[in-house]
Amino acid sequence: DAGVTQSPTHLIKTRGQHVTLRCSPISGHKSVSWYQQVLGQGPQFIFQYYEKEERGRGNFPDRFSARQFPNYSSELNVNALLLGDSALYLCASSPSRLTSGDTGELFFGEGSRLTVL
Amino acid sequence: DAKTTQPTSMDCAEGRAANLPCNHSTISGNEYVYWYRQIHSQGPQYIIHGLKNNETNEMASLIITEDRKSSTLILPHATLRDTAVYYCIVRAVNTNAGKSTFGDGTTLTVKP
Known about the structure:
The complex is a heterodimer of chains A (about 120) and B (about 110).
Chain A: E1 5-7, E2 10-13, E3 19-24, E4 31-37, E5 44-50, E6 53-57, E7 64-68, E8 74-78, E9 87-94, E10 107-108, E11 112-116
Parallel strand pairs in A: 2-11
Antiparallel strand pairs in A: 1-3, 3-8, 4-5, 4-9, 5-6, 7-8, 9-10, 9-11
Chain B: E1 9-13, E2 18-23, E3 31-38, E4 45-50, E5 55-56, E6 61-64, E7 70-75, E8 84-92, E9 106-111
Parallel strand pairs in B: 1-9
Antiparallel strand pairs in B: 2-7, 3-4, 3-8, 5-6, 6-7, 8-9
């Protein structure tokens, strides 16, 4: 079975530009989350989407937005890029919206590495 | 979610057991301990999780102290491929499944 897939794997943008990152969750997973990982730090939570609705948001500016499609794939959009947005953007999927004793495992993709010049 | 504290880095000899500690002194009764690892340039990978009993799977063992304020991830026979950043995370039951609070983890270097 295919894991979480993300595209593109690498991209370079300049300050002020806009970027769209894409994620396809594991088949049957309805929850998709986005994380930003700056070099040398752990992943930071940006958004969670479940059944096409935003279910959680981290401490990120409004330049960051996302959406989830009927097939549960998701896009992360970042407007007016800043140098500080350079990071690895990770997508994670999980079967359900809430954790339970037997779940709560997140399945991560390989990430999209964004460089802002 | 409770905050966790991990050493910044550790070394381990190949073939020996790697013991990675995690402090979570403010953990609540409904919070599980999860461990993930991230090999360079890849996404984090789930390893194991537990509530209060020790757990073992094909990858590792998780030892949680009786007061649940700390835990240790054990890789019984570390290999060079176990070199990675290891994250200890605490998450409550019936909370947002997609949101986890990662710290900066422990960089484990397995040496030949």
